[in-house]
Amino acid sequence: MGRARFGIENVGAPLPPGVFYLTSLNVGRTVFRDEIYGNDATGLVEDESKPFRTMSAALAASLTLTPTLTNRVLVRNKGELREDFNLENAVDIDLGNYYFSTNSSLAAQISDNGVDVDCIIYGNSIIDQNSGGITPTIQISGANSNIRINCDKINNNSWMCFEILSTAIVSIFCNQINSAQDCIFNVGGTVYVEINESSHAGLTNFINVLGDMIVRVNNFTCDDTAIQCAGGTLKVYCSKVASQLKIAVGAGGTFSFYFDEAICFGGVGFENNGGTFILNGRYMDTPDSCIIQTVDSSITKSYIQEVFAQNTVVKLSDGGSMLLWNGRYAAQNLFLNIDVIQYDGGSLIIHDCIGIPNVAGLAIIAAAPINLRCENYYASTNALDPNVTVLTGNFIQDVNL
């Protein structure tokens, strides 16, 4: 019997009798794309020895295998990618351990092209939109698309990383997301995000206009406002966040924020102009302004354990509603009279909280008469504004706090 010598067809010199090469490597329901050896003119499906040169050609060829949700097709990538492409339904993509970029300023790097697509993208890859144009890295607009992405990093040097413009379902798992503008912009989808290391945005890390979004991230930083919630439901879980302007702004919907440490350098920490805020954290600090501002009939519930501010710590006005639960609220400016709570209208309930005003500041200052409902509100110095009447509960002044 002769010996079989395995290889791809590059025969060269004549072979001795009984020695032969395999001229194809068949892999069922798989299409191959190769940066170096691929050729769009000669590429074949289910043949590793006949890869395609471009991802677009490999995806187009995958449709000849008639992919379905119960009988999917895989496109396997080898080598760096420098193109943008549209996803196909029931066609998954293994990007491998390669860098993926595009210089196109006319289209999203990856898109479902407004068509309903079910697709899984995975690999230890970096997906980088570096065109300098106003185009997202990944854009999903099919109403019933279901997209799952698992990679190392997702970047955009001029625009947003994710733009979700429909009621699609999008799941994102990666180590880092970094963008020049917004990291994730959701207009109506159901979005789940896990970021293992960090996220940085030139403008906003996470925006939810409609739909539902859950974000789990270790650390994230922002050059502007870190989070915006204009509608729907947005939940963010993180260890540490630092923003140059504001941590979160609300204009509708329900925003829940669970954190260990939050620092805001340039403005109001949490500005609730509509909707409901639920804040649950260990430590919050702002060197410039107040921590929580609630207006326009919005609702804020704070379960933050320690809060420090250079200005009035909490502001409530215009018919808003606020609950402060089991927290220590301290004004840390050494030279100005800083009040803990500034009340200009609305509903205020305090439960087991400590208020530490500064110099001649007050535990609560009120522009109009207020009936305070509290279950143990402790203050270090100076009592209440004359406009404040303790209707229920106990206000306790203790200079030793």
Question: Can you describe this structure?
Answer:
It contains one helix and 36 strands. The model is unreliable at 1-12 (pLDDT under 50). It is an all-beta fold and 401 residues long. It folds into two domains: 1-67, no CATH class; 68-397.
Furnish the topology, listing elements before pairings.
Blueprint: E1 30-34, H1 55-62, E2 73-78, E3 81-82, E4 85-86, E5 91-94, E6 99-102, E7 110-111, E8 118-122, E9 126-129, E10 138-140, E11 146-150, E12 153-156, E13 162-164, E14 169-179, E15 182-186, E16 190-201, E17 204-208, E18 212-222, E19 225-229, E20 233-243, E21 246-250, E22 254-264, E23 270-272, E24 276-286, E25 292-294, E26 299-302, E27 306-309, E28 314-317, E29 321-325, E30 328-331, E31 341-344, E32 347-356, E33 364-366, E34 370-379, E35 388-392, E36 395-397
Parallel strand pairs: 1-2, 2-5, 3-6, 4-7, 5-8, 6-9, 7-10, 8-11, 9-12, 10-13, 11-14, 12-14, 13-15, 14-16, 15-17, 16-18, 17-19, 18-20, 19-21, 20-22, 21-23, 22-24, 23-25, 24-26, 24-27, 25-28, 26-29, 27-30, 28-31, 29-32, 30-32, 31-33, 32-34, 34-35, 34-36
Give structural attributes.
401 residues; mainly beta; 2 domains; 13-stranded parallel sheet; six-stranded parallel barrel; 1 helix; 2% helix; elongated; disordered N terminus
Quick overview:
The protein is mainly beta.
